[in-house]
Amino acid sequence: MGRLIVISNRVSPPSDVGGGTQGGLAMALAAALREHSGIWFGWSGQTTETYSGQVGVQRAGGVTVATMDLEDQDVQEYYNGYANKTLWPLFHHRVDLTAYERSFGEGYARVNARFAETVLPLIEEEDFVWIHDYHLIPLAQELRRRGVKNRIGFFLHIPWPARHLITTLPRHPQLVEALFDYDLVGFQTQDSLEAFKDYVVHEVGGSLGEGRTLSAFGRTAEFDAFPIGMDVAEFTAALDGETAKREYARMQTSMLDRQMIIGVDRLDYSKGLEERFLAYEQFLQDNPDLHEKVFLLQIATPSREDVEAYQEIRGRLDGVSGRINGAFSTVDWVPIRYVNRGYRRDQLAGIYRAAKLGLVTPLRDGMNLVAKEYVAAQDPEDPGVLILSRFAGAAEQMGEALIVNPFSREDVSDAILRGLAMPLAERRRRWDRLMADLRTTDVSAWRDDFVRALMSN
Question: Do 4-229+443-455 and 232-440 fold alike per CATH?
Fold first, then answer.
């Protein structure tokens, strides 16, 4: 049995791989790499004046980590450009924010070729290669061009867009064709898988084969949905730690017997934060009797701050939250607590547990593990209620949540009222079913399902 080679845009720092500060995904991949004596390869996050192709190799937690540096032009065109100004908005159905610049596409192709050139000497004949996410879609194609015949898998962590949207991308057939150089391609949801099949069949004349196979461009590959889970055991164990208990007690003290609604997101236009604030405003307008009895804590961690669209969304959220607070606040109550900073997962575990409602309302999302973390953090004897966007990938698995249309202020407002008033027996019933599913579809099951499918011929 060969080794497992994991390739992603970024690699967790060697000192953290497998450590307690890692997210569930990083820990799951690290476990797979230890089991298969593998290597995790990716960009170091550092820039260099001239690309050299040199690899930095370190070992920590039983995992070998190999990294490469990129030139500043690479970062601007490949990462900030094609990945985050072209593919990210397009795949999240924001064609209005999508930037199509030839230099971005050139940088994307150049960096994928550099990834292939740099990782090539590390790949041995019997190895299995698992490539992650939209940054590296053409990487298998580049490896094949260099003679790699190993089994190569790809997992897309974000949604695949509808056919009429992907066709707005210049050279979209070439991007899709690159996916047929993989042996196995995984999507987060059945919805994304069906959107991809629709494109292949109706846009490029491909055909559906037996099982999970699709044929197009003269090649056949396997495509399937592999919904990603969270590390339930690790996360629930964190609830018993001092950090989570301290954060829970802190929130209980600051709530002053009010009910808390929690939202935790990266500061990103796909998360529907502005729409969420407006829906909460609708709730306040519709339910004046609940003023001073409830508040929304929105944690929005800044990201990609050098991309203009992210600067704009931050400015709009500052304005909307300020306007709502100005209109409804009293001398001892602020309806929105809006925080722009990140928190550790063990801190969030305690904060989630204190919240009566979890408000997870992205406009478009691959999975959204915050929804799962909120459920996992709840007190089984008195669980809170999850309000979940129908456009989050998690909605396919989490039908016991209150499923809402995030574009409808009234729909979300009504769900907030329903959640706050939900009887304990109903909350327990919904939570029991959600939690049972989280345990059977955790991140280890996802990892094992994909690796098993990749390693089987």
Answer: yes
What superfamily does domain 232-440 belong to in CATH? Glycogen Phosphorylase B; (3.40.50.2000)
The three-state (H, E, C) secondary structure of 400-439, written as one string: CCEEECCCCHHHHHHHHHHHHHCCHHHHHHHHHHHHHHHH
Residue 50 carries which side chain, given as an amino acid letter? T
Catalytic residues: 157, 365
Q: Is the pLDDT of residue 32 over 90?
A: no
Segment holding 68, helix H or strand E: strand 63-71
- Alpha carbon 100 to its chain centroid, in Å, reads 23
Task: Note the pLDDT tens digit of each residue in 302-338.
Answer: 876 666 777 888 899 999 999 999 999 999 999 999 9
Q: Is the pLDDT of residue 196 over 60?
A: yes
Phi, psi of 175, rounded to the nearest 5 degrees: -65, -45
CATH topology of domain 4-229+443-455: Rossmann fold (3.40.50)
Start-end of H helices in 11-134: 24-35, 72-74, 88-91, 102-119
> Distance between CA atoms of 73 and 47, rounded to whole angstroms?
9
Inter-residue contact 389 to 367 (CB < 8 Å): no
Of the given ranges (130-134, 210-214, 300-304, 411-415), which has the lowest mean pLDDT?
300-304
Domain ranges for the chain:
4-229+443-455, 232-440
Helix (H) or strand (E) holding 453: helix 443-455
At 187, is the secondary structure helix, strand, or coil? strand
Would you state the pLDDT for residue 294? 98
Q: What is the pLDDT of residues 93-128, one digit of tens each?
A: 999 999 999 999 999 999 999 999 999 999 999 999
Phi, psi of 145 (to 5 degrees): -60, -25
CA distance 349 to 246: 10
Block residue for tokens 């990140």: 342
The structure's pTM equals 0.93
Cα dihedral 131, 135, 141, 144 in deg (nearest 10): -40
- Provide, rounded to the nearest whole percent, the portion of the chain with pLDDT above 70: 96
Confidence of residue 130 (pLDDT cuts 50, 70, 90): very high
Whether the CB-CB separation of 151 and 27 falls below 8 Å is answered with no
Q: Are the C-beta atoms of residues 400 and 434 closer than 8 Å to each other?
A: yes
- DSSP-derived pairing of the beta strands 128-132 and 4-10: parallel
Mean pLDDT of the chain: 93
What lies within 8 Å, CB to CB, of 333 at 6+ separation is 258, 291, 292, 295
Backbone angles phi, psi at 382, to 5 degrees: -150, 65
- Supply angle C-alpha 21, 26, 32, rounded to 5: 130
Q: Report d(CA 81, CA 83) in Å as an integer.
A: 6
